[in-house]
C-alpha cells in the first residue's frame, strides 16, 4: 500500500547528496563558503534521511492505514522543515565566490523553498485521507506517490548547478555535506534486523566458537572416563 510512495523517494534532488570527492584545487574563499553552508546542512540531511527511512519502514511492515498516515504525515513535516532550513542555510551563506554565483544561489534557495512548500502540501493531503476505507486510502497514497515522484525528479537544475564545478568540489570535502545514515533502524535495512551477538555478525567466529565448545566437551568427557 505504501510501497509506491517509498519507491518515489529515490532519486530526489537533495542538496549535496550526489556529491563525490574530486581534486583538491578549490581556493580558500570557495572552501570557506562551502564550510559555512555545510556546517548548517548536516542536521537537515539527517532529518530528510530519517524521514525517508520512516516511510520505507511503513511500506514494508504491513502497517494499519492509520499508522501509515501518521508516519507519512510526520515524515513530510520533517522534510518540509528540513528543506526550508536548507534554503535558509544557502541564503545566509551569501553567493558563492564563483562566476554567476549570486544567480545560482538565489535560484537554489528558490528551489529549496519550493520543495519545502511541496512537502508541506503533501502532509496536508495525507492527513486528509480516509483511513477507514482501505481501498480509498490506498488510491489516495498512490496519488501522493505520483506527486512525490514529480517533486523528486524535477525542479533541481539550480541545485545541480550549485553542486557542480569548483563549489561542488569544495562542498564534497565538507563532512556536513556528506550523506548520513538513517538513525531510525528501518525494516529491511539490516540495522533493526541484525542479531546482536558478535557470532551472528561473523559466521567464521561462530564456527570457531562452536568448534572450541565441542573440543572442550570432548576433553571433559575423556577426563571423566579416566577418573572412573
Account of the 3D structure:
The protein is mainly alpha-helical and 228 residues long. Helices cover 69% and strands 0% of the residues. The chain contains 9 helices and no strands. The longest helix has 33 residues.
Outline the secondary-structure elements.
Layout: H1 3-7, H2 28-60, H3 65-93, H4 101-127, H5 134-153, H6 157-162, H7 165-172, H8 198-201, H9 203-227
Helix pairs in contact: 2-3, 2-7, 3-4, 4-5
Keywords:
single chain, 228 residues, mainly alpha
Describe this structure in a few short sentences.
With 228 residues, the protein is mainly alpha-helical.
Biggest sheet record: none
* Tally of alpha and pi helices: 9
Our estimate of the beta-strand percent is under 5%
Structural class call reads: mainly alpha
Order of helices and strands: HHHHHHHHH
Radius of gyration: 25 Å
Shape: elongated
What's the rounded overall pLDDT mean?
Answer: 75
- N/C terminus separation: 67 Å
Low-confidence stretches: 15-25, 185-209
| Helix proportion range | 55-70%
Q: What is the tally of beta strands?
A: 0
